[in-house]
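Why this split exists: single-chain examples teach little about how molecules sit against one another. For that reason, every record in the complexes split bundles all components of an assembly together and asks for one structure covering all of them. Below is a record exactly as it appears in the raw files.
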Amino acid sequence: MIRVNKDYDDIPSSIIKYKNEIKKYLDSLESNNSSDNVKKVRDNLWKKLRKEIQEKLLEDIYHKKCAYCESKFPLESFPPEIDHYRPILIYPWLAFEWSNLFITCKKCNNKKGTKFETKSKKINSPPKNRIEWDANSKILLNEKPLLLNPEIDNPDEHLTFMHDGTIIKKNNSERGKKTIEICCLDREPLTLARKKIIDDYKEKIKDIYEEFLDLKNENNENNDNLNVCVKLCGKEITKILLECNNPKKNYSLFRRHIHDDYENLLVNNIIGDKNYKDYVLKYLHPK
Ligand SMILES: [Zn+2]
């Protein structure tokens, strides 16, 4: 999960277009209509609104990634789903609230289900003032949700990784721990996908380094050859670091972890020759 920017005022035009029908739905909640009827009204409305909301979330806000696990769509044969951060079972008035809508993969959405744990008491009726329906309103923040909100929180302060792709809580964060549990962010396919990223990067650097070792074995380790190898390696690491800093890539929080520890992961762990290592580091940090 990474922090994303969503403008709560930049509401999809379909929500504006159908505002009268949304109001009717909200009125029906207040007038205590039978729940079957309310559900029917909501489902019908969703059919009209869904496409545009999904496109906006997917393309403009989430860069075609799941809000929770950062897997990139398309995923297997499952289409993306729209998730209600605060589930409509508990907060039916937030069904069409823009700040409550995320794009997620089927697996995260299924794992999360209709759970929504808070440290303080949940509000159980819609606040009178519509501005207080925003997920970052004081009244909703006061509930102290345990699940991190990528549009409000900075997941980087709560989540980190081991070098093999395993996700763990950061700084003993309770919300980090709970978020991993709620969406099952430590499920094996995700850990393996993250591990593959670091393994592929390591492999690239190893291949370049081995070319140098071959030259060295052939007693061909003159300065020109060393320079060429160092340049190749430096360029490759620069490319990797750029990629690791790109929030549009899948698993970008993990890539940032690689970025922050690249000297250890991609240089010290792989390059044994002291001269070569020093030259690579000099290439990456010229004085
Ligand atoms: Zn996911």
